[in-house]
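Section 3.1: Structural characterization of target chains.
Under the original work plan, the team committed to producing a structural model for every single-chain target entering the pipeline before any wet-lab resources were allocated. The record below documents one such target. The sequence was received from the expression subgroup and is listed exactly as submitted; it comprises 398 residues.
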Amino acid sequence: MPKLPRRNDSASVKARQEALGLDGEVTSFDVAPWASAAESVTGVAVIPVSVAQLRVSLGDYELDDDGAVIETGRGNEDVTVPLAHTEGGLTASMQRGARAVAESGAFRTYVVADRITRASCFVCADAAEALQLARWVESELPAMRDWLRTADLPEVSRRAVLREAKTHVVGPMCHVLWRWTTGDAVGPNMMTRNAYVLNMGYIMERAPVRPARAILEANMGGDKKPSFEFFQQGHGKTVLAEATLTDEAIRRVLRSTADDLIELAWAGTHGAVASGMQSVAFTPASAVAAVFAATGQDLGMVGTSSMAHGVGRRVDGGLHVSIRFPGLEVGTVGGGTTLPYAREWLELMGCAGSGKVYRFAQIVAAAALALEISASAAMATAGSENFFRAHHERGGLR
């Protein structure tokens, strides 16, 4: 293979393109605006972006001094959501679900919690030392917060605030789940820097026992992987979205009935349990991935961000539906959100820049619930005929 230059200056980009024999669409764009997003940028991949329109009751939120999420206001809005994908039928289905909700009222969304975590581990001589270290870490938390806040170190991010530490001892290992808030950024880079400094500059230097090894990330949380820890305790923004569908909207817009949807939920929930599935939902990853791709989010986080727990319940005159996302890893500043296209799509939703991340998380949850509603209605028809026809007619290759 040819040895390629690795810089992102224009000469290196051109040299890579020529060495690989690339031309046409993948090299027709000026990649300079994207050069800061990745290494060895060589071209672009274009994904079509469609839009869906949702009516949502959105909450205004802020953190109190202890890091709890507090609602400060609420209002109904019509929001246009960008969806970058190549999945035939996705946008039409989401719009159908949104229409059924709009004719019944509106989506209602709530931010429940905000924490991002890094799961470190300290390997000790034996279990006794690991237990001693765990007790010390838990007791030392206020001092560690103060140390990070006042440490004059270039590696430390002031935006990442240490909130809690959860310990778990197994054998000689003391696992520590550091829990942070990171403002409007997703925060993996800043919390990684802070956790490393805390591990090496505080614990390894001051702990009453000397661990043989410190590991920055040891998988107790499930970074970029679905896990029970994140499903239960959250990772990123924990958000609820709900709606009440009228029987008339279910019949006329969704071409289904509340009873059929309840039957599908019953079968689907037990199927999820039988498979050991880490979610109880229909297809949240499709909606989450489409919004993430349009807005410059980390696509590796779709796996954890799409973990969801959907619920349906018969009520007088209709059906109440809701979905819980324990770990939406979203940001409105930093990373890919600074890229030109991503910024514009975030601005379309009123979600670009500081002070917008809780709004954005709620819109993602509402969009996913819209798709859940419509896809479930298609599957709930006799023999799931509507679901079959949607894929047959919009599925591309024959």
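The first strand starts at residue 49 and ends at 63.
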